Amino acid sequence: MSYLVLSSHINECASFDGNICVNGECMNLPGTFKCMCDMGYELDKSGGNCTDQDECALKEKCLNGMCTNFPGGYACDCPHNFVSNSAGTGCVDPRKGHCYSDYQEQGDLDICTHEVATDISRATCCCSLGQAWGDPCEPCPPINSTERTTLCPGGPGFKPNNITVILEDINECVELVGLCQGGMCINTFGSFSCECPHGFTLDRDSRTCNDIDECLIDPTVCGAGTCLNTIGMYTCVCPSGHMAIDGGLSCTDMRESFCYAMVREGQCQNATSFNLTERSCCCSVGAGWGETCITCPVEGTDAFTQLCGSDVVVGEYSPSRGRVLGYF
Q1: What is the CATH number of the domain that holds 157?
Q2: DSSP per residue, 145-182
Q3: N or C: which end of the chain has fewer CB within 10 A?
Q4: What is its main location (predicted)?
């Protein structure tokens, strides 16, 4: 004989007066049930009760604002001029305005000068190099003040994203146009640097590229010529008998005269059979040059390097071939 055992499924959600899931919705499942909690509530450890979720205890809620929890939700009270972002996770200052790198108080007036950007947020300005912002302008919050910490929670070089409120790097090279005067701006994580072109040097403010006056640094850079400084470069004005070389950056003596292999007691002796320029003579085997017997500088001295350069290959004089060998 066989027996058929019939069992019936119990619908817990329908077995209780009212909703078994307070602050939630009951979902019947085979042999059990599940509570689907309303927004702002969460299941407790028993899994059968929906309790209030304290959103204010979560770090990603109400950043930069004052959070107040209540059953089923929370309120975020933003500081003056701040509003809640679209995601409701924090407070941001959405205003846009001009940014200034210099600020002074003159009586009751706020004087802002050296505009470095337009139409940027207060955080972008004040959390980087800005000293004042807005129109009319207002000074940026003092460093280490509560207002400064609220505006720049990540410190210098970072700002809260207007949508997510997550901190992000300020790209000063894009946001602050003209930041590097005369140079190229290079953005770095949390900062920036200025790179100057050839012929310029970075000022002590680390933002301005100043022209290098090569004529002032080395008055002898043109040798016998006159140095004329230009923006980012210099040029040599050469006297009669001299020719500009190296793209106008030096003068070489093109006058030809006697080249002497020996100078004894101020007297030049053993002249070559052909005339040479002073450079060709003294930078090879010559000991003296010219009708007035100019003594050639000694190899290895500054005077020799100035006349001959640092890449001279000293050769020898060949009487049979009638020229100087090995000089370039």
Answers
A1: 3.90.290.10
A2: SHHHHHH-TT-TTEEE-TTT--EEE--HHHHSTT-SBT
A3: N
A4: secreted
